[in-house]
Recover the amino acids of this structure.
């Protein structure tokens, strides 16, 4: 059964460093998403992506964040200068159509020291 | 704006019993979808069940069923015959059906209910 994959599973970085979180969505999916979950809190939407451009972004997704689909399979989230409050689990999700179920990857746990 | 409310931070259920996890929602959208996801301690988000706002019948997926009451704006998850492996965090979520076909549709999540299945 196809699934969304994410790498790395855990990333530790120093405050102010850049990180890139990688995702491989399900191959025939067209809509891609990033969500985050601060420890013990609910899952929050960051950004959605369709047809090689951002479809919607939340207030959290400020200029420090960017997304890219560099090739036909990968979908990345870059945080340019990490802050302590960026520590969270980051989930990538994808759906085949805009109204379809979103399937989540296993997440990347980002720890900013 | 959409809002999901899960009022039960934690629930206990005995193995083999049924349990209902509550979810109420608020939206001005006419068309929307409701979802339940399971998050075990390992952290991944596992899709369980979906209900469309225009679906007349309640959704079922194996031991999971969704008790959808549109007038009450509730979408409770019922797990029958609970198993130890059902112990996890459960999130209710919703998303609108956007009018623009090119617009991706974000999920709004509730705060979750932690279910503990006991022997």
């Amino acid at each position: 059964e196809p699934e969304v994959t994410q790498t790395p599973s855990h990333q530790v970085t120093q405050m102010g460093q850049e990180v890139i979180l990688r995702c491989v969505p399900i191959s025939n999916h067209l809509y891609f998403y990033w969500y985050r979950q601060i420890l013990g809190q609910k899952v929050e939407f960051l950004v959605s992506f369709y047809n090689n451009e951002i479809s919607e972004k939340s207030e959290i997704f400020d200029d420090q964040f960017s997304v890219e689909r560099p090739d036909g399979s990968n979908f990345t989230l870059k945080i340019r200068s990490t802050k302590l409050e960026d520590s969270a689990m980051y989930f990538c999700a994808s759906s085949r159509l805009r109204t379809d179920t979103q399937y989540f990857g296993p997440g990347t746990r980002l720890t900013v020291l | 704006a959409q809002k999901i409310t899960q009022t039960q931070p934690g629930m206990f259920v005995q193995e083999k019993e049924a349990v209902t996890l509550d979810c109420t929602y608020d939206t001005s959208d006419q068309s929307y979808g409701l979802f339940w996801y399971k998050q075990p301690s390992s952290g991944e988000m596992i899709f369980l069940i979906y209900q469309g706002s225009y679906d007349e019948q309640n959704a079922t997926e194996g031991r999971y069923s969704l008790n959808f009451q549109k007038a009450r704006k509730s979408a409770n998850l019922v797990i029958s015959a609970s198993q130890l492996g059902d112990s996890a965090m459960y999130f209710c979520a919703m998303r609108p059906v956007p009018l623009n076909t090119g617009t991706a549709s974000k999920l709004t999540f509730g705060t979750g209910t932690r279910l503990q299945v006991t022997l």
Q: What stands out?
A: Chain B has a mean pLDDT of 93.
